[in-house]
From TrEMBL:
<dbReference type="Pfam" id="PF14749">
    <property type="entry name" value="Acyl-CoA_ox_N"/>
</dbReference>
<dbReference type="Pfam" id="PF02770">
    <property type="entry name" value="Acyl-CoA_dh_M"/>
</dbReference>
<keyword id="KW-0276">Fatty acid metabolism</keyword>
<feature type="active site" description="Proton acceptor">
    <location>
        <position position="438"/>
    </location>
</feature>
<dbReference type="InterPro" id="IPR012258">
    <property type="entry name" value="Acyl-CoA_oxidase"/>
</dbReference>
<dbReference type="InterPro" id="IPR002655">
    <property type="entry name" value="Acyl-CoA_oxidase_C"/>
</dbReference>
<dbReference type="InterPro" id="IPR036250">
    <property type="entry name" value="AcylCo_DH-like_C"/>
</dbReference>
<keyword id="KW-0285">Flavoprotein</keyword>
<dbReference type="InterPro" id="IPR029320">
    <property type="entry name" value="Acyl-CoA_ox_N"/>
</dbReference>
<dbReference type="GO" id="GO:0033540">
    <property type="term" value="P:fatty acid beta-oxidation using acyl-CoA oxidase"/>
</dbReference>
<keyword id="KW-0274">FAD</keyword>
<comment type="similarity">
    <text>Belongs to the acyl-CoA oxidase family.</text>
</comment>
<dbReference type="GO" id="GO:0003997">
    <property type="term" value="F:acyl-CoA oxidase activity"/>
</dbReference>
<dbReference type="GO" id="GO:0001676">
    <property type="term" value="P:long-chain fatty acid metabolic process"/>
</dbReference>
<feature type="domain" description="Acyl-CoA oxidase/dehydrogenase middle">
    <location>
        <begin position="148"/>
        <end position="250"/>
    </location>
</feature>
<keyword id="KW-0443">Lipid metabolism</keyword>
<dbReference type="InterPro" id="IPR046373">
    <property type="entry name" value="Acyl-CoA_Oxase/DH_mid-dom_sf"/>
</dbReference>
Length: 678
């Protein structure tokens, strides 16, 4: 049957070339082509897009929208099947690393393979010696071993230095003895650990000759490569069902305990420090912080994933807001599309703009990460602190805004957004742990704050700040300048926006530094002022995102109307933040309340400008219906018949009379009948 495009009228309104925007969104023509090809490949192959379950009727297939109805054990087994099938496809078709990553992404089910590729391999790469890389990476790349990242324990996650697992060197046998001395030292949370991983990078306190040298990484085999049973001394399992139906429950987050498990000395990751045969601890000339390098890698990757998740929610909410109508019908005509309500626009369009903003900052962060890693290889560690602060801060900002944004999109879809078939509840449940894993978002902002306080304290020494904190070099100007905005449209100037964000960030950091200096004990001061420090850190991170969006616009961006649309989105992102954090800009004395009102006036005008382009800007994400997994977000906008159809597929609708009627409902009804007769 031919499908009708209920959103065709919306698409006709676009003032830009959607195909060109798809390329900007993807990052390059090549990236677009790979994503486009792989997303369609996944959508069109039932072995990748469906969940198959053996039931009394034989093998039954379930679509993605239906997966929240399925029991965890079945879902998990299907995820194993899909991972194995994907892996075979990758090998058979000799997919490149980029294509393999896209395949994993579009299959869209958290799985052990994410930990294996996203954390286990990066940890070996970052912390292993050349010999260790040579031995372990080929095994890992061929999946002859499957690994996870076992850092967090039941009692400690954020405080890595507080981990309790021990790795005690035994010089007699040239081995480490890995042990879990307490219940709270049980490894707890690692993805892929519960049921799948054969190996783990285990973080443990290194002890030689009775001396504790702090945390180090060790490669430990957990399960037999023959029958997959846990090796002697190892207790391992899944930690239980997590938030939401389906959602993150396709992942086997695990618990792990060691009872004096012995591993050879060369399984300590030795790039940062070594233990010699006679038990001597030798620190390399690389900084100890490189032990945390894999977290930096993953945090950086999570920023691009944030734009992906937010764009999905925004795509669903935008299309549905154009389909949905409420109120205002005149003379029997159609009601108003809810996307035309200014309140709907003021909630939706900043999220649309944020998706683009996060995409561009993610692109830049990937470049920055690559640049710093190349320097590290050449033993230049000067930019490592900035990379740590920036990845921590931008991961924190983007994942918090994305999780909140998904929930806002659910509300923007009214009641239907609450149905699992909208795709939004599951997207939220899968996404929200990103605010916690790879570093709790508040803990990460406090790391940014430490970096900022250090920067401010070094300004007087004449050290010139560079990179993302170069703006602090203009401290004298930024501390006393005032906005020169005289009318709403002055806020469209990138220079006006940039100075506002720089002045706000500088003043908030300086105010914190001044407050800190009043404490005799700086650590006590840091604890006391932590809420203000977190806000200063956020102001700095927002400045980075805004400035990277502005920098993107300074590039040559071809395509009809593309640059104009991006300029509108950039201003929406910045002015929305200015409006939301109005208090910061006022209190720090950079703007007057009148200038704040101008910003809001300009913001409303920008919403009107983006309105005709909204559906097409969401189309430019190029999400397939399969990837969206949402009836509300269907490309053709055919929402109502599909919602109606889907309701009848719910297991409760398998019979007109529900199970339990005879035991629980009939007696009640009978009782009422008897009462009525009385
Ligand atoms: C085919 C290809 C496919 C590719 C697939 C890719 C897939 C990607 C998908 C991603 C999937 C994601 C799955 C997620 C799974 C989740 C995993 C996890 O959650 S793993 C566990 C993560 N745990 C954490 O993040 C813990 C957070 N805590 C910390 O990081 C630290 O404890 C702390 C930074 C909060 C504190 O560190 P600590 O040493 O205790 O204290 P200090 O604050 O004193 O720091 C000392 C010093 O070090 C600097 N520092 C800290 N961290 C770093 C770092 N990472 N890098 C560089 N430098 C660092 C800090 O700034 C201090 O510096 P100083 O100069 O002394 O001030
Ligand atoms: C889905 C999921 C997957 C995960 N996968 C892995 C994995 O593969 N490998 C792995 O090792 N770990 C993994 N983790 C664990 C994860 O990294 C930790 O949960 C995370 O680092 C937070 O640590 P925590 O649980 O100890 O939180 P806590 O630190 O206990 O946080 C609790 C509260 O205390 C606050 N808090 C903590 N410290 C401070 C402070 N200094 N100042 C102010 N407030 C503070 C936090 O903001 C938070 O509000 C995963 C977690 C989840 C949810």
């Amino acid at each position: 049957m031919e499908s009708i495009d209920y959103l065709a009228e919306e698409r006709k309104k676009a003032e830009f070339n959607v195909d060109e925007m798809k390329i900007v969104w993807a990052g390059s023509r090549r990236a677009f082509e790979v994503s486009d090809y792989i997303s369609k490949l996944v959508a069109d192959d039932p072995d990748l897009s469906f969940i198959f379950i053996e039931c009394h009727r034989g093998i039954q297939g379930f679509s993605k929208e239906e997966r929240t109805m399925l029991p965890r054990k079945e879902l998990f087994k299907n995820t194993l099947r899909k991972s194995a099938y994907s892996w075979k496809h990758i090998i058979d078709h000799q997919l490149s690393e980029e294509e393999a990553e896209r395949l994993r992404y579009f299959v869209d089910e958290p799985a052990f393979i994410d930990s294996h590729l996203g954390v286990f391999i990066p940890a070996i790469k970052g912390q292993g010696t050349k010999e260790q890389l040579k031995k372990w990476l080929p095994l890992a790349y061929k999946m002859q071993i499957i690994g996870c990242y076992a850092q967090t324990e039941l009692g400690h996650g954020s405080n890595v230095q507080g981990l309790e697992t021990t790795a005690t060197f035994d010089p007699r046998t040239d081995e480490f003895v890995i042990h879990s001395p307490t219940l709270t030292s049980s490894k707890w949370w690692p993805g892929g650990l519960g049921k799948v991983s054969t190996h783990a990078i285990v973080y443990a306190r290194l002890i030689t000759d009775g001396k504790d040298h702090g945390i180090n990484g060790f490669i430990v085999q957990l399960r037999s490569l023959e029958d997959h049973k846990p090796l002697p001394g190892i207790t391992v399992g899944d930690i239980g069902t997590k938030f939401g139906n389906g959602a993150y429950n396709t992942m086997d987050n695990g618990v792990l305990r060691f009872d004096h498990v012995r591993i050879p000395r060369d399984q300590m990751l030795m790039r940062v420090a070594q233990v010699t045969k006679d038990g001597k601890y030798v620190q390399s000339d690389v900084p100890r912080q490189l032990l945390y390098e894999s977290m930096v890698y993953t945090r950086q990757a999570l920023v691009t994933y944030a734009s992906g998740a937010l764009s999905r929610a925004v795509c669903i909410a935008t299309r549905y807001s154009a389909v949905r109508r409420q109120f205002g019908s005149q003379n029997g005509g159609q009601e108003i599309q809810v996307i035309d309500y200014k309140t709907q626009q003021s909630r939706l369009f900043p999220l649309l703009a944020s998706a683009y903003a996060f995409r561009f900052v993610g692109e830049w962060l990937k470049w920055f990460y690559t640049d710093v890693t190349q320097r590290l290889q050449a033993n230049d560690f000067s930019t490592l602190p900035e990379l740590h602060a920036t990845t921590a801060g931008i991961k924190s900002l983007t994942t918090t805004a994305t999780a909140d944004g998904i929930e806002e999109c659910r509300k923007l879809c009214g009641g239907h957004g609450y149905l699992c078939s909208s795709g939004l509840p599951e997207l939220y449940a899968v996404y929200v742990p990103a605010c916690t894993f790879e570093g709790d978002n508040v803990v990460l902002l406090l790391q940014v704050a430490r970096f900022l306080m250090k920067t401010v304290s070094q300004l007087s020494s004449g050290k010139k700040p560079t990179g993302t904190i170069a703006y602090m070099g203009k401290i004298e100007h930024l501390m006393q300048c005032r906005s020169d905005v005289e009318q709403a449209k002055d806020w469209l100037k990138p220079s006006a926006i940039l100075e506002a964000f720089e002045a706000r960030a500088t003043r908030m950091s300086v105010a914190c530094a001044q407050s800190l200096s009043k404490f005799d004990n700086p650590e006590e001061g840091f604890q006391e002022l932590a809420p203000d420090l977190v806000e200063a850190a956020l102001a700095h991170c927002q400045l980075i995102v805004v400035s990277k969006f502005i920098e993107k616009l300074q590039q040559d961006i071809p395509g009809e109307g593309i640059k104009q649309q991006l300029e509108v989105l950039c201003c929406i992102y910045a002015l929305f933040l200015l409006h939301k954090h109005h208090g910061d800009f006022l209190v720090t004395g950079y703007i007057t309340s009148k200038q704040g009102l101008f910003a809001n006036e300009q913001l409303r005008a920008l919403y009107t400008q983006v309105r005709p382009n909204a559906v097409s800007l969401a189309d430019a994400f190029n999400h397939t219906d399969h990837f969206l997994g949402s009836i509300l977000g269907r490309y053709d906008g055919n929402v109502y018949p599909k919602l109606y159809e889907a309701a009848w597929k719910d297991p409760l609708n398998e019979s007109d009379v529900p199970d339990g009627f005879d035991e629980y409902i009939r007696p009640l009804l009978k009782q009422q009948l008897q009462t009525a007769r009385l």
